[in-house]
Design goal:
The protein is α+β, with helices and mostly antiparallel strands. The protein has two domains: 52 residues, no CATH class; 64 residues, no CATH class. The strands form two sheets. The protein has a three-stranded antiparallel beta sheet with strand order 1-3-2, with no helix packed on it. The protein has a two-stranded antiparallel sheet with strand order 4-5. The longest helix has 25 residues. The protein is flat, with a radius of gyration of 26 Å.
């Protein structure tokens, strides 16, 4: 049983994470509880447990949820064949790992974009008095001769 607030609340981190990973379908609890439902994959408590170490980062939390699913499928992968039916779960864990990695990549890109917007690199200028520039671009070989009037 995976109890949680039903229907999901998109204004909460748990609701956003649930919508992001697609675990939005639920059945009524037995016995019924107002505002609660039994979700198919994750409970609200499981989603909160993943969100806390990720500091509320919904994309990173989604990546970790898919890592959990990938581990479960990797441990239980099977290939079953009968006369008219074939079930093959081998490789499904790899697919889920790719989904997890895409969430991690998107989270990293968002963090990098936020970090690059938060600071400005200021380079010192001026002269040292010996006819050489006081600053030089990173990675330039020494000595750096100025071709302008320093």
């Amino acid at each position: 049983m995976n109890p949680g607030i039903a229907p999901l609340d998109p204004n909460t981190a748990v609701g956003q994470l649930r919508a992001l990973v697609g675990d939005t379908q639920f059945e009524p609890l037995a016995p019924p509880v107002d505002g609660q439902g039994d979700y198919y994959v994750w409970s609200d408590a499981a989603l909160e447990a993943v969100l806390i170490p990720q500091a509320g980062n919904v994309l990173r939390a989604a990546g970790h949820l898919y890592l959990q699913l990938a581990a479960e499928y990797a441990q239980s992968q099977r290939s079953i064949k009968t006369d008219d039916l074939a079930i093959n779960t081998i490789g499904r864990g790899d697919t889920l790992l790719k989904v997890a990695q895409s969430f991690f990549d998107e989270a990293t890109a968002g963090e990098n974009a936020a970090a690059s917007d938060s600071f400005l690199i200021i380079s010192p200028g001026g002269r040292r008095g010996r006819g050489r520039c006081a600053c030089r671009p990173e990675g330039t070989p020494r000595p750096l001769d100025c071709f302008h009037s320093c």
